[in-house]
Amino acid sequence: MTKARQDRLLNILVRDGEWATAATLADTLGVTPRSVRTYVTAVNARVRGGTAIESGPQGYRAGPDAAAAQRAGAGNDTGTPRDRLHRLVRLLLDDPDGIDVFQTADELHVSPATLEADLARVRSLLGGTELTLERSASTARLRGNEMAQRRLLSRLAHDEMDAGAFDLEALRRTLGDESVGARAFGPFKDDLVAELGSLGYFVNEFGIADVVMHIAIAADRVAQDRGLDAIAHESQESHEAVEAILGRLCEQHLGVCLGAGDQYHLATLVLTRVVAPGASAPSVRGRLDPEVEHAVREVVERAAAQFLVDIAHDDFILRLALHVQNLRARAKEQAWSRNPLTRSLKSTYPMIFDVAVYIASGLNTSLGIPLLDDEIAYIAMHVGGRLERSRRADQLLTATIVCPGYYELHELLRSSVDRSLGRSIEVVGVETRADPDWRSIDTDLVLTTIDPPAPSDRVVRVQPFLTESDVDRVQTAAGRVRRGRRLARLRADIERYFDPTAFVRGLDTGDGSEGVIRMLGERLVGLGAIDGEYVDRAIERERLSSTAFTDALAVPHAMGMTASRTAIAIGIADPSIPWGDGRVQVVAFVAFSEDDREAFQTVFEQFVEVFSERDSVQRIVRRSTDFAAFLDELVAVIDG
């Protein structure tokens, strides 16, 4: 556990790239500040003479040798419980006749009692794998078919990799030092992507990384004469073409001759991770199962109405349906795709992720597809892509150019602004007087070549011939205006939705996250905002995917906007409490009514934005001794 917390500490600092105090990191990790200092010392010891984590008056931040420390940490697991468990599983997989417990304990330099404890951990690891661990006297053996054994190897490989990122060295640690060398897979992957492209496919790089992992596992097993048996199937030209590519490349790069069973299996994995988004609608529909298309269309239309998002378009539905069809094929094989963007999508675009959870839940009901956060994240990428393409022009900021007339100078400036900033602002007026009526200019921004009578956040001084520095300043000002506008709406909304009786400081985690949800839910029930059924549905939503959208904030809620009135219950935890796979310090139980449907996106996303800033979180948590103090601090943070 200590090693895992060291790794997590380093990963947090690398990801954020900012200074963080020991107290903040302690809250995130669920330890004491003294433990954080110990972890920093241990991480720095990984890079002799280097600095993986810098220390200073502001706390800690990732140093120049952080990446080297991450690699060193990944490669120095020999002897740890996880490394020993993985080695034990490899030994069991490699020997169908089983292993001798006492001999294996000697080889691993542990006592027989320790190995017995490791075997118990192996049993718990086998849940849902169609594998069993048999024991006869001193012999332990795994029982199960080859496909189930490969799925176990896949699980171990993913366990070795941080946040779903594909790492060939981690894969080799899983398969053993005698497995196919990592250097062969770079050229293999390049050639595979190129040949798939020549067949007209666009390759999902996240998906192809997972395919390469399965190919590595297959190559390793085939080299041990553990190939898959051929199965009867209908002949398909597209499938056979991919089979031929895989067979040729495996022999060329890996020196392994795949049998018919492995070629078919790997080609199926490739085809369920490859899409052709540029294909015309008729050709896409021709590849779709009508049942899948109907299910996707139905749930997308419901999501569009429920969340007021513009996604119910035929091209979006067809592309998503093709993805879901591939997902259903992967589900049958239990060959899931990892998504390294899951965490960032969840924290940066919580509303989009929530729409994806809603769609995934509907698909689970209609098609029986299991829900995993990584697969939900792929759906969120589809939703986000559609919303990005359908952004309305009225989201642009308006601007007035003030440029005293001299020949065509103001026309040249306007042309430069349109060319460089046309995607973020819209010029709606040009003032060519040297003494314009500044008070009458009511646009979001004013871009002026002369000094205004009084400074303002929305006024940006630019040169007559627009420079890159001018463009940067305008973009910064535009971002400031947008953020201020969003947070102003948030402030107006949340002051209406909070109630002093729905504020709790010092959360009791005895019953876990569900207990916290019920406790906060009871406060809203007492206010008449929701009923007990809403609380139950909020717990159901939590079970689908954790609502811990940042390292500090969880926002439990039901998917339906069925509250009698919109209300928010707040719980403060100091120190942090476990929630899902992480820890949080603030829990906001949000209940929305049908009447406030349009406010959902604003409140949800901007509330998460406020609590994604570490300094803001600490300020609010430390000073919120009661409801009045909480509201004061929250408003102060919003107002900047």
TrEMBL record:
Transmembrane segments: none annotated. Residues 58-75 have a biased composition (Low complexity). Residues 287-393 form the PRD domain. Pfam families: PRD, PTS_EIIA_2. Keywords: Repeat, Sugar transport, Transport. PANTHER family: CRYPTIC BETA-GLUCOSIDE BGL OPERON ANTITERMINATOR (PTHR30185), TRANSCRIPTIONAL REGULATOR MANR (PTHR30185:SF12). This is PTS sugar transporter subunit IIA.
